[in-house]
Design brief:
homotrimer; 260 residues; alpha/beta; 11 helices; 8 strands
């Protein structure tokens, strides 16, 4: 029933995200039924994060100034019981990114951490060989996710061909999704925002909200491909927005795939 | 005849706008026939604003640095008789935004102020209950628009289900448009840029140019929906760009709706 | 064979580009088969540029801070034999932009310079009358390109109705492309990124890589228009992404037009 709840309540999702995906993220949240607001100024981020339904911190094109504002926003969210989603884009690619993420995780109570396997591995300090464009690694993704969830005391989502959602103890796996999601920029980033929206209307069961969010997202991509198939990735991207908007809770219930 | 004039003269519209909508704004201006230029550096904004056909100031993702550059650009525009459109995105949502807008209105001669009812109400200091995603308020939008136009000595456009355009004395109402404009991010922001383009080729009758701009925009959205209907909001957004490009002055004349 | 090589190797293209076109650039690179990464922080740009397959410097919405980071990135690229493409967006429009470009050309070994005729003319100090939206000038574009290539010791691409590619001695002209490329924002900027990707897999023959990149790009636009024709520029933009993704080396070989 979470999709229905989002469409009814239009939760305000405060996104501090990278310049590559702002437009796509905002349109995706509108398609879902949430209300996006992007704001970065230190003078106002605490005000907005404090009244938001959810806060997204995405370090895709981070700067020192922006990180300082993220910490202000994160602390205000924590104080007001607003869930915080962290997307550690490119963690491991540079030591700057890894350090910033660890600093954020240290100073802000993050509710959900969402990344690909390579990013999450770099945060827990596991050496991992990244073997694909989606950041997949050789090794046990489920153990990796549990490790991160325990270390950072937050629900962790590791996305890939198999999506893993765990609080460190119980594990859910989702097999929805289409490979072309890796051919559209910002699909991982938008998922972080979508997770924030789902969690904002289901604070009592964060993990279940994450499962629904991830399945919803994957199913929409399957439908987009089924509809546009031969046309190409530009058409796929547009159809994906259409289906993010049209999906229902019943679709999620009927089409979620928890096994390979 | 303003559309024809824009397509002939390709007025340069200097946009200082938010990071969420820059691409959409630039593509919308190109569709209309104007020439967008985005520039934010203090070292050059006065040079560009001074030679532009119009200047758009949109505070959607403002920073202190950007506001300082906006004031430099605004003053250069004023000096060179370049019309200035202010879009007070999110005024009222944080006190920072409200204060920045009032400061801009104080230091720059704004030609046209465009916002939703909630934003404009916060600028004139009227307490208003916002009741919808489009920033609609309970209360008299026409009186609100007149109040703002008089207080800030500029043409004011309050957009919503009914669009109000006024110089504080004469009032025009427009009923074109489609509700899905609220499901595509940046449609309000792009309208501000479109207004700047229309005004740039019709400095002698600012108000009439605003009426044409608002009607043009609404009609394009009606056509986009008529064409794509069941497909969804991604398709609607693309068709909207197509129709922004294809519309003619005759379309505006024939399809403008000034009564409910 | 360069397209095939790009799709196999997925070269990492580090883009420091303007806020208007980041999303379009990243999606275009993904369509091509390259891996885009956008990063601007001084703390990390040298790390990323040093391991990238190519570096794009585009000054479309430059700031003093960003230019400093560009120089750090450019020097790291030079040190690691990573090709650097410079896109001098708006050079000549303000003296700030012209000076920044000349400074970049002075401090970084640029591999390829890509601009329209007006921009390149302003960099070599030639007075030119810009006569169209695509920055075309009155005068000899081939001589202009050769002049720039010699002056800055780099391959120079001057784009327009006729595209000119030269190392200062040998000249190639390409006549592919569609006028609607000027109606979609960022098509010039994306071409710079595409050139970086082609050059990254063909460092031994930079000029030939540029010829292929420019022809590839033009042919994709011709196909996009052929497919969507009457629909409009929004549809054209989407089809363009589809065809950037679908093109093959054989298409380039068969459809390249080197004469008017």
């Amino acid at each position: 029933m979470l999709l229905k709840k989002i469409k009814k309540e239009n939760p305000l999702i405060h996104c501090m995200t990278n310049v590559v995906v702002t437009n796509f993220t905002a349109n995706g949240l509108l398609a879902l039924g949430a209300s996006p607001v992007m704001a970065y100024a230190k003078e106002e981020v605490a005000d907005l994060a404090g009244i938001a339904g959810g806060l997204l911190l995405n370090i895709g094109t981070l700067s020192t100034d922006e990180v300082e504002a993220m910490i202000l926003a994160g602390k205000a969210a924590n104080k007001n019981n607003v869930p915080v989603v962290l997307d550690p884009v490119g963690a491991g690619a540079t030591s700057f990114r890894t350090e910033v993420c660890l600093d954020l995780l240290n100073r802000v109570d993050v509710t959900v951490l969402r990344g690909n396997a390579g990013e999450i591995a770099s945060l827990v300090g596991v050496k991992a060989t990244v073997k694909g464009v989606d950041g997949a690694i050789e090794g046990d993704t489920i153990e990796l996710a549990k490790h991160a969830a325990k270390k950072f005391s937050c629900v962790t989502i590791v996305t890939g061909e198999m999506d893993v959602i765990t609080d460190g103890h119980h594990v859910h796996t989702i097999y929805n999704g289409h490979p072309w999601l890796t051919k559209v920029v910002g699909t991982g980033c938008l998922l972080g925002a979508v997770v924030a929206a789902f969690v904002s209307v289901s604070k009592k069961d964060i993990k279940a909200a994450c499962v629904d969010a991830v399945a919803y997202y994957g199913i929409a991509s399957e439908r987009a491909f089924a509809e546009t198939n031969e046309e190409g990735i530009g058409s796929f991207q547009q159809a994906f927005l259409n289906h993010l908007n049209k999906m229902t809770d019943l679709d999620i219930k009927q089409l979620i795939r928890t096994k390979k």
